Amino acid sequence: MSNDKPLILVVDDEPDIRELIKDILEDENYEVKIAADGQEAQQIFNEQQPDLILLDIWMPDIDGISLLKEFKQQNKNVTIVMMSGHGTIETAVEATRLGASDFIEKPLSTAKLLRGVEQALENRAKQASIQKELAQIPVGKSQQIKLLREQVERVAKHEMPILLVGEPGVGKHCFSHYLHSLGQFSGGKFIELSPESFPLDSLKITSLAKNNCLYIHDLALLSDEAQALLLHLLETHKLQQCQLICATQYSLQKAVDNGDFLESLLYQLNSITLVVPPLRDHIEDIPELVHHFVDVQTTRSGLPYRRFTVAAQNRLRNHEWSGNILELKNVIQRLLVLGNGEDIDVADVDLALASEAEAIENGDETINFELPLREAREQFERIYLLRKLQETDGNVGKAAKLAGMERTHLYRKLRSLGIDTKQI
Ligand SMILES: Nc1ncnc2c1ncn2[C@@H]1O[C@H](COP(=O)(O)OP(=O)(O)OP(=O)(O)O)[C@@H](O)[C@H]1O
């Protein structure tokens, strides 16, 4: 919203009604502008960019539906609620199709008006949550996440490579997207490379990287050739025209000690190292993360909105979250998809957590088609590889044969998916 007090524009050709609405809303601490016709409304719209417009369907110079269309064309994010005494279902449907967020029927009562306004502003806030998600601004008020956001804001101004360290699902991608959006290559693309997709071709990498953000996922698992190539590119300053972000869940120092990672590459990359904490270290963020994921998922996939009771939120705070924020996001999605009723209670949460654990144990987890491709692919790979390992009693060599993969490649894959073969 443009300032603390939401600005509401009321467009109605009847002076008494305009004034009445203005008085009611000003009493509730909203800032209000009024317009008697389309022309006046357009002028205020251009000059003041209201947060919300209450728009009458019938006006002398232009009808409300055409005005709605014009406003939406000029700014698709403006929130508009239609008002009419003669509202038919068809008009309401048409207004909604054109982007009106609600329809209030006249004669107005104070309660009806305020409910409509509050709801529209609440929806607007929900949209803001979606925008945040699209811009990938990491959510969280805990000291750890606040500090990390500030560190990212500070380092984004520099051109140095950034190393993000943290367990799977803690938000390394999320913070990288945020970093990218703040850096000097924010106009460029976010290109993700994994140990499997890393091209062993310096020209290809430099042209991919140029003016973009290059995110290397699972750095510790890069092959020896890929490490040597990356080191060469860094030493010859070929990756200066890009934002380089590397992520790892494993300690690079340990990898160096084991002879699996080049020490000089570590020194090229680790001068700015940021640690993304596991969710168990900032459980106070769980309620905000829950709201965020509920807002995003209900708005995006049209699932009915469901409220988590305080007890349910406490239950979520007490879970172990070995899969971190990614696991929390999936559990919330499961609860929204499978549940019914307005509230989500402790029993629902227990059931979702238990069925999650059971599905993984039985290897019969199903693919969730609501997930973005990357996460769905990981989910599939996990199910597939767990099945192969079960078929071979945990023998990685045999499982690799069944899967048609190199044994070392399968080891890497299992590690990146967080599958512990000792537990099969
Ligand atoms: N602080 C946060 N605020 C909002 N969403 C978040 C936050 N952290 C993570 N997420 C979301 O949770 C999901 C998992 O996070 P993300 O993919 O960033 O983790 P990751 O550490 O990169 O995982 P991996 O190592 O497995 O690739 C993503 O959809 C991400 O957008």
UniProtKB/TrEMBL annotation:
One of its GO biological process terms is:
regulation of DNA-templated transcription
Q: One Pfam family, please name it.
A: AAA_lid_14
Residues with PTM 4-aspartylphosphate: 56
Annotated keywords: ATP-binding, Nucleotide-binding, Phosphoprotein, Transcription, Transcription regulation, Two-component regulatory system
Q: Where is the Response regulatory domain?
A: 7-121
Q: Which InterPro entries match?
A: AAA_lid_NorR, CheY-like_superfamily, Homeodomain-like_sf, HTH_Fis, P-loop_NTPase, Sig_transdc_resp-reg_receiver, Sigma_54_int
- Molecular function terms in GO for this entry? ATP binding; sequence-specific DNA binding
Q: From which domain of life does this come?
A: Bacteria
Asked if the Swiss-Prot or TrEMBL record annotates the protein with the keyword Phosphoprotein, the reply is yes
Q: Which Gene3D superfamilies does UniProt cross-reference here?
A: 1.10.8.60, 3.40.50.2300, Homeodomain-like (1.10.10.60), P-loop containing nucleotide triphosphate hydrolases (3.40.50.300)
| Domain called Sigma-54 factor interaction: residue spans | 138-337
Tell me the SMART domains matching this sequence: REC
The protein's matches in PANTHER family, at most eight in alphabetical order, are given as:
TRANSCRIPTIONAL REGULATOR (NTRC FAMILY), TRANSCRIPTIONAL REGULATORY PROTEIN
Protein name in UniProt: Two component, Sigma-54 specific, transcriptional regulator, Fis family
* Organism expressing this protein natively: Methylophaga aminisulfidivorans MP
